[in-house]
Amino acid sequence: MTDYRNSTFMFVLGAIVAIFVTMQSIFFLRKAWQEGKRRGVEPAVMRKAVVSSAVFTLVPSLSILLTMLTLSGALGLALPWIRLSVIGAVTYELPAAEAAAQAAGASLMSSELPLSVFSVITWVMTLGIMSGPIFIIAYFRKLQGKVKKIKVEDNRWGTLLIAAMFVGLISSFLGSALAGGLISILTLFSSAILMVICITLEQKAGLKLFKDFALPLSMIGAMALAIFYSGLLGGM
Amino acid sequence: MNNRTLNNEQYEQSIHRMGRIWMLLALLVILAVPFVISINYNVWPTFGALMGGLLPIMMIYVPIGIIEVITFSPMLGSGATYLAFTTGNLTNLKVPCALNAMEVTGIEPGSDEGEVISTIAVAASSLVTNLVLVIGVLLFVQLTPVLASPVLQPAFENILPALFGALGYLYISKNWKLAVVPVALMVAIFMIAPSAPVGILIPVSALSAIGAARFMYNRKMI
What is the ipTM of this complex? Predict the structure, then answer.
């Protein structure tokens, strides 16, 4: 019998989801581009945003791809492809799938995954992550209105508020990385030092490329150094 | 109200209307997946198994989902929020990507231009991730041994420190006064509970940063 997890039917579903996400992304890209022109943003600036975002995305996408390959052992290739193309995250999909498998009396480690368990997994992975989109449909407009009101009433505080939120987000990951063991700490500081080097190269040597691609370059460099540290310290 | 403000209002109305339509369509497409799988294979989950799997997941991810909207949407702006919350991977990809695009183009987050650049960044990022996943599906056999090789594992395991080290320097060097309280708080929490979930702590950290910012702002320290 053909493996139901890797059937043509499943890949057709995956293709439909991928086409939908592509159409939605193109729609928002066009809409923002037109609005950018109206707001006086130079096309060259918008092109720079596209290129730097595309380059930056490559490395995290490889990590998402790796999660897809990891999940494919238990769930086939099509379902992880579908799940990682839409709302969810690498940190969500595996625990959701495992919780569902366990509730159905199985495990993702099992060599055979009965169709009944697979069905439970697909429903749980899908329904478990719906709160964000539903909340957006119901309340996002009101929420955005409140943020805009703050900016209108006191623009300086509005700008500081958003900067504080960014710093808050970054601080939580800094804390997590600092508590993640020696390799994690070394990788974190290596990445920061590589960023300093990129900025210095741009400012002192006029190498603009290092400004435009500072983040992906620092990230890739730090990840390469993580391999080196791991070899040196033996996975501490 | 001047013309620019009026046009911005019209854009906001239009993006919320279209955003909601796209989000509803996305929910339908996403929900259709388990539904048509169940129809095609004629296998429906029992209520007990469904709830047994769903409840523990929802207890964690329902609050996280709502918190993510409240925390990330002011940073992302309207268009990017609608798109990012359909295509996912917010903390590890879409939010840093939008931040990076605004930094590279020298445009201030939360500004009129920031709304545009953030949406462009999230759209470009979603298209690239989509393409990478399609290539991954097509080249599954060839890519698996490379990406899953033990040599590369430390690199992928440390992707978040590699991302937030550089991003942290960039933002904290510019806003170091804003960073003192949240960084100290997060380091203290993670020292006590190293495996604490970051998703839950993001709003705690953001709130502490906002509280500290307001304190300093009121006293004209920033």
Answer: 0.89
Are A171 and B204 inside 8 Å of each other by CB?
no
- What is the pTM assigned to this prediction? 0.89
* Phi, psi of A106, rounded to the nearest 5 degrees: -135, -170
Burial (CB < 10 A; 0-12, 13-18, 19+), residue B122, is buried
**Residues in chain A closer than 8 A to B183 (CB atoms):** 171, 174-175
Determine which of B134, B164, B174, B218 to mutate to test the interface with A (most A C-beta atoms within 10 Å): B164
Q: How far is B142 from chain A (nearest CA, A)?
A: 11
Query: pLDDT, tens digit, for every residue of B19-49?
Result: 999 999 999 999 999 999 999 999 999 999 9
